[in-house]
Amino acid sequence: MQNLVEYIQTLGQKARLASREVGRASTLTKNQALLAMVEAILAERETIRRENAKDLAFGRERGLSPALLDRLELTEARIDAMAEGLRQIASLPDPIGEIEGLKCRPSGIQVGRMRVPLGVIAVIYEARPNVTVDAAGLCLKAGNACILRGGSEAIHSNRALLACIQQGLRQAGLPDTAVQLVETTERAAVLELIRQDRYVDVIIPRGGRSLIEAIVAESRIPVIKHLDGVCHVYIDDRADLAKAIRIAVNAKTQRFGVCNAMETLLVAEGIADKVLPPLAEEYRKAKVELRGCTRTRQIIACLPATEDDWYAEYLAPILAIRVVSGLDEAIEHIARYGSAHTDAIVTEDLNHARRFLREVDSSSVMVNASTRFADGFEYGLGAEIGISTDKLHARGPVGLEGLTTQKFIVLGDGHIRT
Amino acid sequence: MQNLVEYIQTLGQKARLASREVGRASTLTKNQALLAMVEAILAERETIRRENAKDLAFGRERGLSPALLDRLELTEARIDAMAEGLRQIASLPDPIGEIEGLKCRPSGIQVGRMRVPLGVIAVIYEARPNVTVDAAGLCLKAGNACILRGGSEAIHSNRALLACIQQGLRQAGLPDTAVQLVETTERAAVLELIRQDRYVDVIIPRGGRSLIEAIVAESRIPVIKHLDGVCHVYIDDRADLAKAIRIAVNAKTQRFGVCNAMETLLVAEGIADKVLPPLAEEYRKAKVELRGCTRTRQIIACLPATEDDWYAEYLAPILAIRVVSGLDEAIEHIARYGSAHTDAIVTEDLNHARRFLREVDSSSVMVNASTRFADGFEYGLGAEIGISTDKLHARGPVGLEGLTTQKFIVLGDGHIRT
C-alpha cells in the first residue's frame, strides 16, 4: 500500500511540474504535439491492434458482456476516428491567454480577466480506450497536464496509445509527463488519486452513477460530473402540431441509449386529444413502449405509469407520458422529477417560451428543438470531454473552455491604494 | 440528534422551494425587497442595538478577546454601513437572465448561454453580524435563496437582523424563507448542513483555515473557499525605482491584517543594491520587521529568514525578503511558496510583464500596481461575498456573478437531429 501511495504521489508531482510547461506552451507547439500524436497512432496501428487484441482476449476469458467488448474494441475505423479527433482538436482556437473585459477603474488601474489552464486534470473512465486519446488531446490543447485512469480491462490498449501520445509530446519539445496513465489496475489507486489535492485541480469521472457517487463521497478535489439524463419534452397547448410530433419522435427514437434522449413526454390537456393519437402511432412503428398517466390512458392505449416512471432514465425504447394542465404544471413536474440535464418546450407562444427558458433549471433548455441537440459538436464547442450536470464551473457539454479558468489581471503604472 | 437532522433538512427544503420564487423574481421586486430591508433595519435600530448588547455581554462573560468583541459590536456607524451596503447592492445591475453568445449553428438551431442563479447557497461565518446582511443581500440580488450560519456568539444580533431581512422580503411579496438562519448554536448543525446536497448547491465558508478545511473534508457539496494569502511583489531588474518603492511600501504597510497585503518581497539581483536600502528605511519608519535571505543581509541589516518564512502569511508588520537572479527565479519562487492569491511584478520591460502575467498562476496577477487592489470594490464588482482561492467556478474576488451560473439555451423552429 505504501508503494501505491508513493506511486500516485509521484504521478501527481510530475503532472504538476509538467502542467507549468504545457500551461505556457504556444498554440503552435501544442498543435504540433497533437499532429505528431496523429502520425504516431497511424504509424503504430498494428501495435495498437495487437495490444487491443490482448485486452479483448482477456475480456472474453473473463466473460465481459458483448456491449463492453464492443466498447473495448479498437477497429480500424475507430483508430482513424481517434486520429481525426486529434486533428479536429488541433484546428480549434486556443482558449488560453484570451483577455476579457479589460476596463479602466476610477483608481487608474486597468482590470480584466485572462483565460488560463486549470492545471492538472485527472480523468477516470471505463474500458473505452478511445477516451484515452480524446481526453489527452483536449487537456493538452487547454494547456493542462492530465492523469488518466481507464478501466483495467483496457490496460494494454491504453499503454499502446499512451506511447503514441507521449511520442507526440516529445517531438514537440513538451514533457511526456504532461499525459500520464495510472498503470496499476488496483482499485485503491483511484481512491489515492482523488485525495491528491496538492497536485490535482479537478477530477472528471466518466462512467456509471455508482462510480461517480463513490468519487464525490471520497474526493477532496472538485469533481465535474455527469449524473442522470431524465430529459423532458413539454408539448404546450399553443404548440404547432406538426413540430410537436416531429420533435417528440426525434427526441425519443433517434437514439435510445443516450443521455439527451427524452424519457418523459408532458402534454398540455388542451392539445392532448389531438397530439397523442398520431404520436402513439409513430411510437408504435418505432416499437417504443408507452406508460401513461390516467388521463393519457383515456386517450391512447398504453401501460399505466407509476410514480417511479417519472424518475426513470430508461435509456431504452420506453417512454413515460403525462397530461398536465399547462405550463405551470409542466415546470413543476420538471422541477420535481427531472435531473436538470436537458428539457424542451414546443410552443408558438412567446411568453410561454420565455417563461420556460427562464424558469426551467436545467443545463440545456430548448424551445422548438429536439433534446438530442444537447451535445458539444452540435453546440459548436468542437469536441466535448463530457456533459456536466453540475451547476458550478461547467454546466452542460464541456469543451475546451470548461477545462480552463480565468484569473484577474491588473495593469498599473505605479498605482497604489490609498 | 434526530431533531437536528430534521430541522436542517426542513431548512433545506424550504430554501429549495423559495429559490424557485426568487430565481424568477423581477429585478424590480428584488430591489424593492433590498430597499425594504434598509427601511426595516433603520426603523429597528434600537432593537438591533439591544440584541447586540446581549451578545456583547455574553461575550464578555465568556472572555472573548477584544478583537472578537470588536467584530461582534454593531455600532451606529456599522448599522448605517449595513444599510448603505444593501442600497448599493440594489443599485448594481441584475446579472440574471443575461444571454451571451447566441449563435446560429449549421443545423439551424440558435445556441447561447443564459445567466441563472445557483439555487441555494449556504454561508457559514464567524461572529460578524454585518455578514448576515451582506450575504443575504448579495444572494438575493443574484436570485438565490440562502441559509446563513453565523457564529453562535452573534445569535441575538443575527436574529434581530434576520427579522428585518424577512420583513423586507415579505413587503416585496417574496417568501421569507428565501433567507433563513440556522437558529441552533449546536456545532453539529454545520456538519448536517454541508451534507444536504439535495437542497444546497454551494457552500461559502468565511473564517479561519481550520473551519474551511474541516468543511472541505466533510462536505458533499461544492465549496467556494478562501485559504491563504501569501502575496508577493517582485521588483524586476528593469523596474522603475520610484514605482518599485511606492508599490512595495503600499503593498506591505497600507494595512497589515488583510489577505492581499504583501508577505514576501522578491528583488532581482541587478537592482537589489539600489532598491533595498531606501526600502529598508521606509519599512523602518513603518515599524516593519524585515527577515532576509543571505544576499539581502549583505545589503541591508535585518534578521535571517528561514525556510518557514517563505511560506508564512504573517498578517502582521513582518516582511520576508529574497534576492533572486531574475524573472525565472521569481516565478519559480512564487510557484513553490505562494498561495495563488495575488502577486505583482514591477517592471518597465514589456516581455517580462507579459511572461509574469501569463505564467504566474494566481487569482490576481498585477503589473506595476499594489497587491492591495485585489478587492471586489476596486475591481468594479460592486460588492464581494469573499475572495476565492479556488480555481473552479469563481477565482479571486467573488461578486454577484460568482453567485450565478450559466445554462445553455437552444432556440429552434421544429428542428430535429438527423
Could you walk me through the main structural features you see in this protein, from its secondary elements to its overall organization?
The structure is a homodimer of 418-residue chains. Chain A is of the alpha/beta class and 418 residues long. Helix content of chain A is 45%, strand content 21%. The first copy, chain A, has 15 helices and 16 strands. Chain A has helices spanning 2-24, 27-43, 45-61, 66-72, 76-91, 129-141, 155-171, 188-193, 209-218, 241-253, 269-285, 294-299, 307-311, 327-337, 350-359; strands at 99-104, 110-117, 120-125, 145-149, 179-181, 202-206, 231-235, 262-268, 289-292, 303-304, 318-324, 342-346, 364-369, 386-388, 396-398, 404-415. In chain A, the strands form four sheets. Chain A has a seven-stranded parallel beta sheet with strand order 10-9-11-8-7-12-13. In chain A, α2 runs antiparallel to α5 and α3 (45-61) packs antiparallel against α7. The longest helix of chain A has 23 residues, at 2-24. Chain A is globular, with a radius of gyration of 24 Å. At the A-B interface, α1, β2, α10, α15 and β13 of A face α1, β2, α10, α15 and β13 of B.
